[in-house]
Design a protein that fits this description.
Mean pLDDT: 80
Largest sheet: 5 strands, parallel
Low-confidence stretches: 37-41, 131-136, 397-408, 474-491
Number of helices: 19
Shape: globular
Strand order of the largest sheet: 2-1-3-4-5
Length: 491
């Protein structure tokens, strides 16, 4: 999302410094020559999401100026830039709704990281607001009602977890709805009235992640001009959702484990422990057990998080749910986009059901939004779908490269060469990896060696084709906890 930033800084060299440090990516600088005031709207003629203003550019008293900006229809955030350390004034500005008070005497690197973090927060606020306008219903476990036996069994477990305070690990591919499930469990549990705080561990700079999670005291590091609460404190009495937990640096995993075990945190630069009452839910699309074996993730943290583990099946394993999902999102987008679309044509629905959905439900939502937007009639037709889906569906018969219709080129002539090559290559890849996994009993190391691949490349290939090593271990009737263990009969 493009963030509109209004810079009202003086002198001019300071304004140019901030422009340089902010950069141009995802930022649109807007102009206004007027100051905030009581006689009219603050900064007239400007339309902005974030105001970065020198203390001298605000009318007196500055707290009233901040409050007047925050009362604009867009409710923009305000960052005040100063060269002094007036604790009383800082307190009044923050109480009036100021996002931050920044001292411009810090180094360029510190100031750049601070500004990037503040802009990112505003961007996330706006994106969350858009999602709330778009789908304003509260997440519920009813959203996961399904005809699929896999989901029905999965949800039986999920319902038993709503009243629990135990840590929870949610596994699943990208786009299956891990955060939405966590929100649903939170909203139907005893902590529903308290905050649900989602944190994307992979999106936080390593230099800031400790401060973001645990907070910091004033003066803890350069640029820490005031004490700040972290996500653990913000989630007090509620739920902290740690997405992409596998991306957490090793040195921080120790502190995260201690926080979960002791229910206390210590701010960066702080000396006293702060008790917190937080239920921790974590999620990842990676194989955490493999990460533990590779020593990229601590085993003690893994076992602490995985008190209960929920694994959400990918959409391709529950195709019977696709028609209902398609209908649900068509009805939502027809309202949001104001389109007279009543449903989906049988041919288009057949293509949607046949598609493998590597991006899962998130990809399905995007495809339906696009189709409703492009639809020229009263229902979604095949030509309203992306080419990748129509080409793949048209080549469904090519799933087996040795199928009778491919015995001669007669089965290819009505299809584009690119599409035939794509499906044949994918089919050969899938068949090859399947056979080698079957031969090795799902042992990743041996499979990778036979295939001439490294393990990371093999995992990527398996993920692309929806293959899981556990499926091949079960087929051999053995049970292992790692590739290196000796097989033993399954009980």
């Amino acid at each position: 999302m493009l963030i509109r930033v209004l810079l009202t800084l003086e002198p001019a060299p300071l304004r140019r410094r901030f422009q340089r440090l902010l950069g141009q990516n995802d930022i649109s600088f807007v102009r206004s020559s007027a100051r905030s005031g009581r006689s009219g709207p603050p900064f007239p003629g400007a339309d902005f999401d974030l105001l970065i203003a020198s203390r001298s550019r605000l009318t007196e008293p500055p707290a009233e100026a901040v409050r007047s900006v925050r009362e604009l229809p867009e409710q923009p955030e305000v960052v005040v830039v100063t060269d002094s350390e007036d604790a009383q004034e800082r307190s009044s500005l923050l109480a009036a709704g100021c996002l931050a008070v920044v001292n411009h005497r810090v180094s360029d690197q510190t100031l750049k990281e601070t500004l990037q973090t503040l802009v990112q927060r505003r961007q996330e606020q706006l994106e969350q607001g858009l999602r709330a306008e778009r789908f304003d219903e509260k997440p519920s476990l009813r959203d996961f009602v399904s005809r699929s036996p896999a989901i029905q069994s999965f949800m039986q477990t999920a319902h038993r977890l709503t009243q629990s305070n135990s840590s929870l690990l949610i596994l699943g591919e990208t786009g299956v709805g891990k955060e939405r499930l966590a929100q649903a469990l939170h909203s139907e549990g005893p902590r529903a009235a308290a905050p649900f705080v989602p944190v994307n561990c992979g999106a936080l700079p390593e230099s800031l992640i400790e401060s973001e999670l645990f907070g910091h005291e004033e003066g803890a590091f350069t640029g820490a001009s005031r004490a700040r609460r972290g996500y653990f404190e913000l989630a007090h009495k509620g739920t902290l959702f740690l997405d992409e937990i596998a991306e957490t640096p090793l040195h921080l995993q120790v502190k995260l484990l201690r926080a979960i075990d002791t229910r206390t945190i210590q701010r960066v630069g702080g000396e006293r422990p702060i008790p917190v009452d937080v239920r921790v839910m974590a999620a990842t699309n990676r194989d955490l057990q493999a990460e533990v074996v590779a020593r990229r993730f601590r085993s003690d943290l893994y076992y602490r998080l995985a008190v209960v583990t929920l694994s959400i099946p990918p959409l391709r394993q529950r195709r019977e749910d696709i028609p209902e999902l398609v209908e649900t999102y068509i009805q939502r987008f027809r309202i949001h986009l104001r389109r007279e679309v009543a449903g989906c044509a049988p041919e288009a629905l057949e293509m949607l059901v046949a598609y493998d959905w590597p991006g899962n439900v998130r990809e399905l939502i995007n495809v339906i939004e696009r189709a409703v937007l492009l639809c020229s009639g009263d229902r979604v037709e095949a030509h309203d779908l992306p080419e990748g889906i129509t080409a793949r569906a048209g080549l469904a018969a090519l799933e087996d490269p040795f199928a009778p219709e491919l015995a001669t080129p007669a089965g290819w002539v009505d299809r584009p060469l690119r599409a035939v090559k794509e499906v044949l290559t994918a089919s050969v890849e899938r068949r090859y990896v399947t056979e080698v996994l079957r031969a090795t009993g799902g042992r990743i190391g041996e499979t990778a060696k036979r295939a001439g691949l490294n393990e990371r490349a093999l995992y990527a290939l398996m993920k692309r084709h929806g293959l899981r090593k556990e499926d091949f271990k079960r087929k051999l009737g053995v049970e292992r906890t790692s590739d290196s263990e000796t097989p033993r009969p399954a009980s």
